[in-house]
Amino acid sequence: MIIQCDLTVVRDPELCKTKGGFEIQVPPSDLAEQFGKLLLEEEETDVVFSVGGETFPAHKVVLAARSPVFKAQLYGNMKEAKARRVAVEDMQPGVFRALLKFIYIYTDALPVIGDDNICDDDYDEIIRHLLVAAACR
Amino acid sequence: MLNGGGGGQKKRNTKIEPYRHRVETDPKFFDKSWRKLHDAIREIYNHNASGLSFEELYRTAYNMVLNKFAPQLYEKLTENMKGHLEEMRTCIEAAQGGLFLEELQRKWNDHNKALTMIRDILMYMDRTYIPTNKKTPVFEHGLELWRDTIVRSPMIQGRLFDTLLELIHRERTGDVINRGLMRTTTKMLMDLGLSVYQDDFERPFLEVSASFYSGESQQFIECCTCGEYLKQAERRLHEESERVSQYLDAKTNEKITAVVVKEMLANHMQRLILMENSGLVNMLVEDRYEDLTRMYTLFNHVPDGLATIRSVMVSHIKDTGKSLVTDPERLKDPVDFVQRLLNMKDKYDNIINVSFSNDKSFLNALNSSFENFINLNNRSPEFISLFVDDKLRKGVKEANEEDLETVLDKVMMLFRYLQEKDLFEKYYKQHLAKRLLSGKAASDDSERSMLVKLKTECGYQFTSKLEGMFTDLKTSQDTTQGFYASTSSELPADAPTMSVQILTTGSWPTQTCNTCNLPPEIVSVSEKFRSYYLGTHNGRRLTWQTNMGTADIKVTFGNGSKHELNVSTYQMCVLMLFNSADVLTYREIEQSTAIPAADLKRCLQSLALVKGKQVLRKEPMSRDIADDDSFCVNDKFTSKLFKVKIGTVVAQKETDPEKLETRQRVEEDRKPQIEAAIVRIMKSRRVLDHNSIMTEVTKQLQPRFMPNPVVIKKRIESLIERDFLERDKTDRKMYRYLA
């Protein structure tokens, strides 16, 4: 009698493992800084606000995106929609400037306004108006 | 705590306090402010908004809210808008005829634009006062005022819906209407709230539609054929879906479809389906696939629609099938009979496939219908077997192998319907035996293919005997070869060549054993074969079946013509007598050959009375054969062919006595099968009541035949007598298994 044995050896495949774990480093957002620059350098503005004798160039699309009130004013059916110069009454120029900074730069925190020569009374009013403006977001 | 930006700056100590705005002290503040807004709103409604200052108006409303005048502002706003809407209503009501919807639409657009601007001016109130006090927001409030002041005003509401429904009616009757205007009007209703659209338009629309289609269906059903009516109904359904997509709310589609289906189809379902000369039955008879498809598709929407169609189809198939299988004229030609069944099956398979979406419930209905009527004729098993016999004899002569395979597959469908498959088996065995023994089987492959189909369908046991038949033929060849190999030196040189088919008892159809007197020339060879066979197979018994078999005989007639005759064994026995006698009477032939009278007479008729095949002459030349009739060789016989075939044995439809005999044998064969089933059941159950035995025996034997309850009862009694079973002593309906 002849007995024949066939043996098959099965081994794990010898494949090189692919190194993973690549992470792309994304730089932190500087959106606020860039929008701040946009406001500061008065580039490509399409509307000018006249407040208490001072003028404030601005961008309609930014204001509309940030505030439904400005959107209704600048893209509605009344005269401001077609005007390049909009008069704002009953507001201090400094207050309006702070409002613009708030709209362009900040999302959560109240602004630090150290370099303006604003007296204490005006400063209090700024805070109040900013709160109101924030409520309209 | 907030810090200054630069070093050295004084630190501010700011505390956030509740908002305190400068309180307006002017007693006319509210009136002045409202006047400003009021005038602005008037300009807005007069399309003069472009001159207004949004900043001024927004600030005015803003300050009013801050100074706690929001409630008054909201109330004034409501009164003011209501006033404007009432002016609009007057204009709309004054619009003449066709301009009504246009004016309504124009004013609606104006109102929406105004509302958008007013909402923007009062945005601060919308965000503060209104949520706090649970008031309706400005825009929604404006819509509500429009709804209540205009849409639902007494003079406009009725007119609006009359106008809309009138326009829809005109479109239904073929006019072209302004769909864009319809679109904007219904969209207005939806913008006012889905309930406005549903309550103020959709519900009356559906009611009017029901009335319209009820009337139309009455009119059409009186003058249209069923097919024409259904085509119209289909067209209406498409039109209504189109209308919804054009200018109604999408959700209306389901509702209007239900209305059309109910009024045009459901309410007339019976009448349509059963319509004389054009209903479902006519469509089926005339293979009107398009109409059938439409009927199936449309009645799919109707509750019980398909069930009704299926029911009518079943009735029709059963009636048609019944008349086919019970028509005495049809029973004369079994092959034609089965072919008609196959054609009928093809027809309805086609209809279900093409028109009824291969609906499983229809296929099942078709199958049960065929099963129902095929078994109405208890000769169906025989006829199906004869059909198969016809195809397997012709084989590829008439059709190629593939076509033959297709036909056999279809025949198997009919076979599946038979309730008496054992009866089919009996006939199939007979017919197969004749094909095999007469060499008429056209194709061995086809025969075996058919056998495989039967085995697949019914199991090995069903075909084991049939396979035994093939085995016998193979063995017979080998045996005959062995015989001649071992005995060739012992046979005279002019001895006839013999080919023997050895048939195993039980595998082949039971045949009465008829021995006749073989010619001496044959006997000498056959006895040698017997000796050889019994010498090599100990303990076996060999019986000659002279009623089967064929012979080839070389003949020289008196006029000198030579022919080779192919005849049956019986015919050979008769013809060989004339080597030593010129004239023989019937009685003499019968005595010499010992062939049974019925067979002999048929044999002689084939030899003497068939035109073109008359190798014998008969005196007198009458059809009937009497004892004193005389026969002699036809010395004037002529034929164009050298080989002449006489009296081919062909499978024939059974005569009534033969049919009765076959059925009796089948019934007899069923008894042991029933007993075996009873014993198997009782052996596993040990104790079982009468009804359960009946049920289980029937279930077990159903694939082959439907057992007769009376027969089952008798077999139970027989088993009791033979001590396989006994009755329970306390309950006579209970049986116990013994042994």
From TrEMBL, chain A:
In terms of InterPro entries, this protein maps to: BPM1-6, BTB/POZ_dom, SKP1/BTB/POZ_sf
Which Pfam families does this entry report, sorted A to Z?
A: BTB
Q: Describe which pathway this protein belongs to, using the record's wording.
A: Protein modification; protein ubiquitination
Example GO biological process: protein ubiquitination
Q: Where is the BTB domain?
A: 45-104
**What is the protein's name according to its record?**
BTB/POZ and MATH domain-containing protein 2
Q: Which organism is it from?
A: Zea mays
TrEMBL record, chain B:
| Annotated keywords | Isopeptide bond, Ubl conjugation, Ubl conjugation pathway
- Gene Ontology, cellular component aspect: cullin-RING ubiquitin ligase complex
Q: Where is the Cullin family profile domain?
A: 379-608
SMART domains xref list: CULLIN, Cullin_Nedd8
Q: In which pathway does it act?
A: Protein modification; protein ubiquitination
- Is DNA repair there in the keyword field? no
Cited PROSITE patterns: CULLIN_2
Which GO molecular function annotations are given, in alphabetical order?
ubiquitin protein ligase binding
Offer one example of a GO biological process linked to this entry: ubiquitin-dependent protein catabolic process
Check the record and name the Gene3D superfamilies matching this protein. Answer: Cullin Repeats, Cullin, Chain C, Domain 2, Winged helix-like DNA-binding domain superfamily/Winged helix DNA-binding domain
Q: Which domain of life is it from?
A: Eukaryota
* Family of this protein: Belongs to the cullin family.
Return the PANTHER family for the record: CULLIN
**Name of the molecule in the record:** Cullin-3B
The species this protein was found in? Zea mays
